[in-house]
Amino acid sequence: MTTRTPSDALLLDAIGNRFVAVAKTPADPRDAARAMCEAHDADGLLAVTVPERAHAIDVGLWNRDGSDGEMSGNGARCASLFAQRALGVEPDVHDEIDVRMPAGSVRVRGRVASDEPRLAVTLGPVTLGRESRDEHGQRTFEAHTGNPHLIMLVPSVRALQETDVESLGAHAQRGFQQSGGVNAHWVAIESRTCVRLRTFERGVGVTPSCGSGSAAAFATLRAHGLIDAQCRVVQAGGALDVRASRRGFVEIESPVRIVTR
């Protein structure tokens, strides 16, 4: 394997979820994340390094506000694109790269032969938590994919469009301050094979998409018999193809691209 070091950071995009990727952890990654995300209008900073083990990368993750990230499905796929294009990392015989993130390792599948390669990542096992209902009967579910999620089920696509995600997402953080916040999602079911999702990510705010949140919403709805084993999750930034993998695991897939060099 030939490892190359890029002279500059790259801005990468996975259905609207944008990350700045660098090949060396900055001296102060929290300050760097705030500055670089502000400069590039990105959601997070990825520090991608190549370990001794083959077909693998280690990824540091920081949110837009400088807080530590744990897991990101879109971030893992962007990191794989960066590693293949900028660092010369080769996938294994199954076209997979082992991506070690702060919350654990995930497998990203796909080679970057085109300008917008389709990359898939398997997340999990997804842990499902408690269900509750508010005074209006709205169902809320807790889930964990290496990072925490709240899934709010809304009755229609119109209700989803009218939801004030920014204020409700900020309010949801108050109940999770001791654990560093929560990724809050509102989901409406169009059919058994298509749902729509809106997201407020901790440390970022409203984002065009969320990979781990899509996996959490899919696993939650699937566990309650509301959707099929393969489903499209439509978000402001685009659509993710989501499918059940081995027991407790979820695979998400979509195009990923380099925005700027």
Structural classification: alpha+beta
In spatial order, strands of the major sheet run 1-2-3-4-5-6-7-16
N-to-C SSE string, H for helix and E for strand? EEHEEHEEEEEEHHEEEHEEE
Would you tell me the overall average pLDDT? Answer: 94
Please count the beta strands (DSSP E, at least 2 residues each).
Answer: 16
| Cα radius of gyration in angstroms | 17 Å
Helix run count: 5
Content of β-strand: 35-45%
Low-confidence stretches: 1-7
Largest sheet, if any? 8 strands, mixed, barrel
Rounded to the nearest angstrom, the distance between the terminal CA atoms is: 23 Å
Q: Name the overall outline.
A: globular
Percentage of helical residues?
Answer: 10-25%
Report on this structure.
The chain has 261 residues and is an alpha+beta fold. Helices cover 20% and strands 41% of the residues. It has 5 helices and 16 strands. The chain has an 8-stranded mixed beta barrel with strand order 1-2-3-4-5-6-7-16. A hairpin with an 8-residue loop joins strand 6 and strand 7. The longest helix is centred in the N-terminal third of the chain and has 14 residues, at 73-86. It is globular. It starts with 9 loop residues before the first strand and ends with a strand.
Keywords:
alpha+beta, 261 residues, disordered N terminus, 16 strands, eight-stranded mixed β-barrel
Question: What order do the helices and strands come in, and which of them pair?
Answer:
Layout: E1 10-14, E2 17-22, H1 29-40, E3 44-49, E4 56-63, H2 73-86, E5 96-101, E6 104-109, E7 118-123, E8 127-133, E9 139-144, E10 148-153, H3 157-162, H4 165-172, E11 183-191, E12 194-201, E13 205-207, H5 211-223, E14 230-235, E15 238-244, E16 250-260
